[in-house]
Amino acid sequence: MNADKSTCSLGVDSQYVELAVEVFAMLADATRVRIVLALRNGEMAVGALADLVGKSPAAVSQHLAKMRLARMVSTRQDGTRVMYRLENEHARQLVADAIFQAEHALGGTPAHHRAEQESA
């Protein structure tokens, strides 16, 4: 068990704690959370993302630029369009876990637990 903590840097004295706080700060914006949710199933262009999250393409582009600097998203050129995708599965998992925690805050049996119970 301790080997896992040292390998993943999960100790309380981890050098990555401050960087983790920056990750949380990057995700402390509803539009960025919605962008992560939109990108969880694959890449999308700015216009499609803007439509999904209900913001202007300019606003979504600004959020994506910050997320790209934070290495949460990456890009691929497709002709004249720029396609965005999540850099790895961790931002997707962080957002999913935050949504699940929010469901718990409402009380009762959260939707993600009902889905687990129904499949069992």
3D architecture notes:
Keywords: DNA-binding, Transcription, Transcription regulation. It is built from 7 helices and 3 strands, in the order αααβααββαα. By secondary structure, the protein is mainly alpha-helical. It has a 3-stranded antiparallel beta sheet with strand order 1-3-2.
Q: Ranges with pLDDT <50 over ≥5 residues?
A: none
Our count of helices gives 7
Distance between the termini: 29 Å
Helical content, roughly?
Answer: 55-70%
- Please tell me what the overall shape is: globular
Would you report the number of β strands?
Answer: 3
How much strand? Answer: 5-15%
Within the largest sheet, what's the order of strands? 1-3-2
Could you state the order of secondary-structure elements as H and E?
A: HHHEHHEEHH
Rg, Å, rounded: 17 Å
Q: Sheet with the most strands?
A: 3 strands, antiparallel
Structural class designation:
mainly alpha
- Could you tell me the mean pLDDT? 89
Domain HTH arsR-type: 12-106
Pfam family, one: HTH_5
Protein name: Metalloregulator ArsR/SmtB family transcription factor
InterPro entries: ArsR-like_HTH (IPR011991), HTH_ArsR_DNA-bd_dom (IPR001845), Metal_resp_trans_reg (IPR051011), WH-like_DNA-bd_sf (IPR036388), WH_DNA-bd_sf (IPR036390)
